[in-house]
């Protein structure tokens, strides 16, 4: 596109048929069209012509001046350039934000072809427009990463960071607890000013000042296949995962210090609740999408 005025004349609707056809074949045409449409949707201020006309008619009349036509073209070119610059800045500098509602998961690909699966009730964002200089991903919730060979990036959570060293791994950051599991390769986990490197089938759990190392035998997290897996987790955390998985609200007055380890079904909410009911001695009451759990012993 060698003609510097081509885009300006396109915005003004002044292109010849051959020029328009050439522009439409340009690989960037879809982007130009998206920018134009975005700005056309911006609400324009209301124009009160009546009062302005009365003010103009009361002004002293001066001889008319002839304005050369080239000035109009120059103004249109500058205006169009400003619109395009602002449009590019608006569209290409926005972070890519991914999020999942309760009961849903989402798979997407990063700019380096690494694959990500976002678990229910989670959010992630990154900058695809500046990926080569800013290989950072923000995560609030849980996600499984399958990194493209030779690629590196950092996952930032409210509880710590995980730096990729070519791997498959899972990151979960919820309710003040960070769980990281490495399934392949290596990851560097940063937390509370410290660092640890995980190798395949090793995990680390950080909760406040407590740090626990672990060993896993599976090749991927069970939630990928629809199951809910827990390792010494509080009842509130377990119920939170059930809420996100089944898109329900759970109310309980039980504040048990007993932790739960094991697997719950991801396709049978009644079975999951019955398991917890037997373990924690709970009664189950359903009211639509609201579930009420109460202690059989009257404890709180």
From TrEMBL:
Protein FecR C-terminal domain residues: 228-293
Gene Ontology MF, one: sigma factor antagonist activity
Transmembrane segments: 73-92
Family annotation (Gene3D superfamilies): 2.60.120.1440, 3.55.50.30
FecR protein domain: residues covered: 96-188
Keyword Disulfide bond carried by entry: no
Entry-linked InterPro entries: FecR (IPR006860), FecR_C (IPR032508), Ferrdict_sens_TM (IPR012373)
Domain of life: Bacteria
Keyword DNA-binding assigned: no
Keywords, alphabetical: Membrane, Transmembrane, Transmembrane helix
Record-given protein name: Iron dicitrate transport regulator FecR
């Amino acid at each position: 596109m060698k003609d510097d005025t081509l885009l300006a004349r396109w915005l003004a609707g002044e292109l010849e048929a051959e020029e328009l056809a050439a522009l439409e074949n340009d690989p960037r045409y879809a982007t130009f069209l998206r920018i134009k449409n975005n700005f056309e949707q911006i609400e324009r201020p209301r124009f009160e012509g009546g009062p302005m006309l009365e003010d103009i008619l009361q002004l002293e009349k001066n001889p008319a001046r002839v304005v050369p036509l080239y000035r109009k073209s120059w103004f249109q070119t500058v205006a169009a350039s400003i619109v395009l610059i602002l449009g590019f800045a608006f569209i290409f500098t926005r972070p890519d934000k991914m999020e999942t509602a309760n009961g849903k998961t989402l798979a997407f690909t990063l700019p380096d072809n690494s694959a990500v699966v976002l678990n229910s009730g989670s959010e992630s964002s990154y900058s695809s427009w500046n990926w080569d200089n800013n290989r950072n991903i923000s995560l609030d919730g849980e996600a499984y990463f399958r990194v493209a060979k030779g690629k590196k990036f950092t996952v930032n959570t409210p509880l710590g960071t995980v730096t990729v060293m070519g791997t498959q791994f899972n990151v979960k950051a919820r309710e003040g607890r960070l769980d990281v599991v490495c399934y392949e390769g290596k990851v560097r986990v940063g937390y509370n000013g410290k660092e640890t490197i995980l190798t395949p089938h090793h995990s680390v759990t950080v909760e406040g000042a407590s740090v626990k190392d672990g060993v896993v035998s599976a090749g991927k997290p069970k939630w990928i296949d629809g199951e809910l897996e827990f390792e010494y987790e509080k009842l509130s955390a377990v119920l939170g995962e059930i809420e996100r998985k089944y898109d329900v609200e759970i109310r309980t007055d039980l504040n048990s210090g007993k932790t739960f380890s094991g697997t719950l079904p991801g396709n049978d909410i009644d079975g999951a609740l019955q398991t917890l009911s037997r373990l924690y001695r709970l009664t189950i009451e359903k009211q639509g999408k609201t579930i009420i759990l109460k202690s059989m012993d009257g404890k709180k």
